Amino acid sequence: MESLPIIAAFYEQIDVFMLVLVRTLAFFIFLPVISGMSIPMLVRLLLAVVVGASIFSSGIVTAVVATETLPAFTLAILTEFLAGLMMSYIIYFVFSIILYAGQVIDFMMGLAMVNMVDPLLQIQVPIVGNLFFMAIMALMVVTDGLANFMWAFMISFEILPIGAAFILGNQPIIEFIVLQMTTFVIMGVQIAVPIIGALTIINVALGVMVKAAPQMNVFVVGMPLKIIIGFFLLLTTMAGPVNRIYRYLFTLAYDSLAEIIWGLRPDGL
Cα-Cα-Cα-Cα dihedral of 83, 89, 94, 98, to 10°? Predict the structure, then answer.
């Protein structure tokens, strides 16, 4: 009998709980590690329900939207879904920089046509990029980076109440995303610069050798040489800085997530 008031209170706010669950489910769509296809869909759904229930019961959730009518509730669901989706996508986009850097390195090594299926994302990814992406994901788990993202997501309900997300016509958010996309492409090239520079020198040297000895088959000599030197450079120049690259990407992703959360907040709140 003592649980009846709790059940009644939950029933009165079941619409708010559903909106919390919608934002949580959307956040899990692109969140690294959790969004991987290696985790069964049922497990991800149960995890989203547990996280949503924990956030709802924490007392930080407030709603500033009327959900008495079906159109208003539908609009609130769409708003919360887009808000959670934007939060998770900006994190995924930042860590995808390492995939782009790997694609550039594969192109320079002559492995542009050799892709593999990522078991987490179920998409075609470059070999080198997938190697470093898996290393970055492992670092995210062991350094509690995933827990920090979950904490920031929970705080988003305090900063951005249910139904308060300003999405349509939010020009600052659009400008921020476009600017970040440009910045991320530049960063991907910067990560791959050591390998790009060394392999460019090798290409120039091969070009000189072809001019000096036209009878030499540059494809027979050049392709294995670039692959061998490329992997050697990866072991010597990229294996060590992986931890620093992860910390830089994590800081950038965390700051971008905070920017999205505060950017979705209307000026009136």
Answer: 170
